[in-house]
Amino acid sequence: MRYKRFEDLPVWNEAIELAAQIYALTAKAEFKSHWSLKDQIERAAVSVSNNFVESVDDGTNNELLAFLYIARGSAGEVRSMLCLLERIQAFRSLNNESKPLKKRAENCSRQLKGWAQSVQDSDFRGERHINQRTKRMDQAVRERDEFLKELADIRAKGSTAGTSKS
User: Fold this and answer.
1) Can you tell me the distance from the alpha carbon of 55 to that of 124, in angstroms, rounded to the nearest whole number?
2) Residue ranges per domain, the chain?
């Protein structure tokens, strides 16, 4: 599936949900006297989705990979801080809430690693290296593939229509 907007990408949605849930966690009373810890975990959580978005903007593969790894590092930072919270007495009452957040951060990290691996394995050099001719050829291939899929669907419907009579 080809995505048209970053808002449609599963990894971005996972990262945004992580940030929203981190903000819900840091709104708890336990964080009232721990401003720097609250600020740091919130900034790290927001950094996951923001750096991912920067990675998918036009650029080269090296730029893409750099932002993917920064986003992945931020997901790791969130996990590390959640582990810290589990070890600080003042936050132990939040352990049941922090465990699923650690899993969500780990899921973001796994998805980001998958993106990075697919970029590294690809011959594609990045959006910045695409010219108008390449874009037209890519569009023609997509249109041909869509046409062939529609044709296959029509044939499949036709063959089932002929066999449904008893």
Assistant:
1) 15
2) 6-123, 130-160
Q: What is the residue type of 50? A: N
Q: How many CB atoms lie within 10 A of CB 40?
A: 16
CA–CA dist 2, 95 (Å, integer): 38
User: Alpha helix (H) ranges present in 27-131?
Assistant: 35-56, 61-87, 95-121
CA 135 to chain centroid, in Å, comes to: 25
Please check whether residue 16 is in contact with residue 104, taking contact to mean a CB–CB distance below 8 angstroms.
no
Q: Using CB atoms within 10 Å of the CB of residue 161, give its burial: 0 to 12 exposed, 13 to 18 middle, 19+ buried.
A: exposed
Q: pLDDT at position 125, please?
A: 54
Global pTM? 0.72
Query: pLDDT by residue (tens digit) across 25-68?
Result: 999 999 999 999 999 999 999 999 999 988 886 667 888 899 99
On whether the CB atoms of residues 14 and 111 are closer than 8 A, the answer is yes
To which CATH superfamily is domain 6-123 assigned? 23S rRNA-intervening sequence (1.20.1440.60)
